């Protein structure tokens, strides 16, 4: 049983295969967080809490004369705000009498034999093979009729626990939520470090590791996307935790808009980790009978370092978040014309690129930006989703059919959430854009953002998307989003609803995606936001792959894909071979290396293959053969980071579940005088099986390979790469 409740109905244990999460509703109804870590038995651990009279940490009325009982010191599940816990709470409420206080106490619980779904937002779902379970804890605000429902989902075999909060107003007067986070994780004891994934456009998700101390560590986004700059996923680990050793906890928010994640030690050395929707520019008004749901946060614990933690996230996201046909079905090798032509294309150019691509074994042509409206550069046309037949020399249907006749699939690019001021749509509906009346808007890429909270806007977009897709043979859509939000003002959600627009915007995006996929369930959707600006768990619910970065430089990609891999599966990372010198960095790398790096992702090309040498064209064939040969390893196998991008060489490995085959990719990251040998480690093999290694033809047991490693028989040049296999014999 994954959920165990103590006899008094106040102790709750959530048991996964290797972890336990424990809560206890104390005598005052405060829901204490008593344990999260390696699996333990069904004992109450609330006696780990040491209560003391702490100066300047006051006592709630019900403690009467007990000065050792303070909300400011107790580890809690839904910390209060405004009533004596000074560490930052989860929920802030503004009541109609003008008071600001939120103090929730335990009322009861319920268990469901399946995993809950957050209304209107992506969340982990049950499958035929595995269902989750749900514990719902009911809490009531002490002095009002506001209820909180704490949802806990348990995927026992996956070592995953999820949390989400629902707030309902059962009172007559409206209340305003000015903060509503998805979860709090309190640690009473121990030293921890926080790992975050900061970056920037074209350099997403590097890795930063900081000791959690009394100075608050905080990351987040107020850009209306999960952002290039930070990612809504963090790891808390004990100092010294490595890939294979040490304790670590992951927290991954299933949300694609403004978020906050923070960790801080309190005065007594206890650590509080908070995660959820960013409270800046947020408020949500709840009239009588109305409810607010937070996004889900996915928690996972590993006492065997980061490799196991990542694997747990990869599996849960692949199996319980990604949906649709292409979640399991092999994805086609694509060629995207963006870096090949940018806006400068016509039918002849596209067909020439497609013909060459198809001869080399590429399975899909993706027509990127510029096929619609008036769009020969990025200053106009967004919103006018009508095919520019003049530019294409015919209809999209004709073009699609010609591509299909070459034996290839056909895909196109959209950026539905945007509007150019120079567009017919803007001229007709200026109020559809987010901009503050009387204030010049901020322009980014010279475009504005559509008010996705509006139903009429979504209806227009769905009609346009449907019309285009229903009238041309389209197999794939790249769904882009190319600026951060600001100038938040909706003509629909005004006045006291003004603070809801950011959240309603993303709910609108989810709604449109949901309806679009219901209409075209077999479409392969690739998410994108200027590359990896919206690379988050929620987007994986709609698109099993996301363009990982606008930076296609193979060497920069090492760190981008490395950082991304801590939470997100390799199968989700769009990765393409592009031209050299690279368009973003000017760096020259080997064609082979570009292929090897892109193979560890959802693979494709982003260049005109008519313009490469014959030798390189032959390499394309080889790379595509490798893609097919290793697909089940790269897309279904277990992933191991062996050496990071900052080291002399970067290396990673895939092993299939049966431990019959392993594939290692190794890329030299620097040039060396008097070079040292390349000795690499090997992981994940079966110690008892014998394996032959492609690099030297030697056969050893898995045990020997994993302990002795492999020394390459030759020196690799700067940026040179090699694929090495181990096959059971
Ligand atoms: C974004 C995407 C690119 C490309 C361009 C088109 O930057 O990330 O891949 O689609 O838009 O304008």
Radius of gyration: 27 Å
Residues in β-strands, percent: 25-35%
Task: List bound small molecules.
Answer: alpha-D-galactopyranose
Coarse structural class? alpha+beta
- DSSP strand tally: 38
The coarse overall form would be globular
Q: What composes the largest sheet?
A: 10 strands, antiparallel
Number of helices: 14
Oligomer: single chain
Extract low-pLDDT stretches.
none
The end-to-end span amounts to: 40 Å
- State the helical fraction: 10-25%
What do the pLDDT scores average to? 98
Brief descriptors of the model:
14 helices; 729 residues; alpha+beta; 8-stranded parallel beta barrel; binds alpha-D-galactopyranose; 10-stranded antiparallel sheet
Characterize the structure shown.
With 729 residues, the chain is of the alpha+beta class. Strands 6, 7, 8, 9, 11, 12, 14, 15, 19 and 20 form a ten-stranded antiparallel β-sheet that branches. Helix 8 packs parallel to helix 9. It is globular. The two termini are 40 Å apart. Residues 338, 368-369, 378, 413, 480, 482, 528, 530-531, 547, 550 line the site of alpha-D-galactopyranose.
Task: List strands and helices in order, with pairings.
Layout lengths: L2 E3 L5 E5 L3 E7 L5 E8 L52 E4 L9 E9 L20 E9 L4 E10 L4 E10 L5 E13 L5 E4 L11 E4 L5 E5 L11 E5 L10 E6 L5 E7 L5 E7 L6 E3 L4 E3 L3 E6 L2 H16 L4 H4 L5 E3 L1 H4 L5 H13 L4 E4 L21 H4 L3 H10 L3 E6 L3 E2 L4 H5 L19 E2 L5 H16 L5 E4 L21 H19 L4 E4 L9 H4 L4 E3 L6 H11 L8 E6 L12 H9 L2 E5 L7 H23 L1 E6 L5 E7 L5 E8 L10 E2 L9 E4 L5 E3 H7 L1 E2 L9 E8 L1
Parallel strand pairs: 21-22, 21-30, 22-23, 23-26, 26-27, 27-28, 28-29, 29-30
Antiparallel strand pairs: 1-2, 2-3, 3-4, 5-10, 6-7, 7-8, 8-9, 9-19, 9-20, 10-17, 10-18, 11-12, 11-14, 13-16, 14-15, 15-20, 16-17, 24-25, 31-32, 32-33, 33-38, 34-37, 35-36, 35-38
Helix pairs in contact: 8-9, 11-12, 12-13
Alpha-D-galactopyranose binds next to loops.
């Amino acid at each position: 049983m994954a959920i165990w409740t103590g006899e008094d109905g106040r102790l709750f244990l959530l048991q996964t295969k290797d972890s336990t999460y424990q809560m206890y509703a104390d005598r005052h109804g405060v829901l204490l967080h008593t344990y999260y870590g390696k699996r333990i038995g069904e004992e109450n651990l609330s006696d780990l809490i040491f209560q003391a009279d702490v100066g300047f940490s006051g006592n709630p009325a019900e403690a009467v004369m007990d000065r050792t009982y303070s909300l400011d010191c107790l580890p809690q599940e839904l910390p209060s705000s405004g009533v004596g816990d000074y560490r930052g709470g989860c929920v802030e409420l503004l009541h109609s009498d003008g008071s600001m206080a939120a103090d929730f106490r335990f009322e009861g619980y319920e268990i469901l034999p399946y995993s809950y779904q957050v209304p209107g937002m992506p969340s982990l779902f049950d499958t035929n093979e595995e269902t989750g379970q749900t514990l719902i804890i009911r809490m009531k605000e002490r002095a009002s009729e506001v209820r909180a429902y704490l949802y806990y989902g348990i995927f026992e075999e996956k070592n995953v626990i999820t949390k989400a909060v629902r707030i309902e107003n059962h009172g007559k007067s409206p209340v305003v939520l000015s903060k509503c986070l998805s979860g709090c994780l309190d640690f009473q004891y121990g030293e921890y470090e926080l790992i975050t994934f900061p970056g920037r456009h074209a350099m997403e998700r590097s890795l930063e590791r900081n000791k959690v101390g009394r100075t608050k560590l905080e990351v987040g986004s107020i850009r209306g996307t999960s952002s290039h700059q930070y990612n809504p996923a963090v790891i808390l680990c004990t100092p010294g935790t490595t890939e294979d050793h040490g304790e670590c906890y992951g927290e991954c928010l299933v949300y694609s808009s403004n978020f906050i994640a923070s960790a801080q030690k309190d005065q007594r050395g206890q650590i509080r980790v908070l995660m959820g929707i960013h409270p800046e520019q947020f408020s949500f008004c709840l009239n009588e009978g109305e409810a607010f749901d937070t996004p889900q946060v996915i928690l996972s614990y590993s006492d065997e370092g980061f490799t196991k933690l990542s694997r747990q996230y990869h599996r849960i996201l692949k199996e319980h978040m990604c949906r649709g046909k292409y979640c399991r079905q092999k994805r086609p090798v694509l060629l995207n014309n963006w870096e090949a032509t940018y806006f400068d294309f016509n039918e002849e150019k596209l067909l020439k690129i497609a013909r060459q691509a198809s001869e080399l074994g590429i399975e899909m042509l993706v027509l990127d930006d510029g096929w619609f409206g008036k769009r020969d550069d990025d200053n106009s046309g967004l919103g006018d989703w009508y095919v520019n037949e003049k530019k294409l020399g015919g209809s999209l249907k004709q073009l699609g059919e010609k591509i299909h006749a070459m034996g290839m699939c056909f895909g196109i690019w959209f950026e539905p959430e945007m509007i150019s001021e120079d567009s017919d749509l803007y001229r007709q509906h200026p109020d559809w854009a987010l901009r503050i009346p009387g204030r010049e808007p901020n322009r980014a890429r010279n475009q504005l953002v559509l008010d996705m909270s509006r139903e009429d806007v979504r209806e227009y977009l769905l009609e346009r998307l449907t019309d285009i897709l229903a009238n041309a043979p389209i197999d794939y859509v790249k769904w882009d989003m190319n600026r951060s939000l600001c100038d938040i003002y909706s003509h629909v959600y005004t006045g006291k609803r003004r603070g809801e627009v950011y959240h309603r915007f993303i709910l609108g995006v989810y709604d449109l995606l949901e309806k679009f996929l219901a209409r075209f369930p077999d479409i392969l959707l690739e998410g994108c936001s200027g590359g990896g600006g919206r690379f988050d768990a929620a987007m994986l619910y709609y698109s099993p792959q996301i363009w990982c970065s606008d930076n296609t430089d193979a060497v920069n990609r090492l760190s981008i894909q490395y950082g991304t891999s801590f939470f997100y599966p390799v199968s989700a990372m769009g990765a393409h071979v592009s031209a050299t010198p690279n368009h973003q960095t000017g760096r020259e790398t080997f064609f082979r290396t570009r292929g090897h790096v892109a193979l560890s992702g959802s693979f494709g090309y982003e260049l005109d293959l008519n313009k490469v040498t014959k030798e390189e064209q032959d390499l394309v064939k080889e790379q595509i053969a490798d893609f097919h040969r290793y697909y089940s390893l790269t897309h279904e196998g277990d992933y191991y980071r062996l050496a990071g991008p900052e080291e002399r060489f970067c290396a990673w490995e895939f092993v299939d579940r049966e431990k019959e085959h392993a594939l290692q990719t190794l890329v030299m990251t620097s040039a060396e005088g008097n070079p040292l040998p390349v000795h690499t480690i090997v992981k994940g093999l079966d110690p008892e099986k014998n394996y032959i290694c492609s690099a030297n033809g030697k056969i050893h047991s898995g045990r020997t390979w994993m302990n002795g490693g492999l020394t390459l028989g030759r020196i690799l040049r700067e940026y040179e790469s090699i694929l090495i296999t181990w096959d059971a014999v």
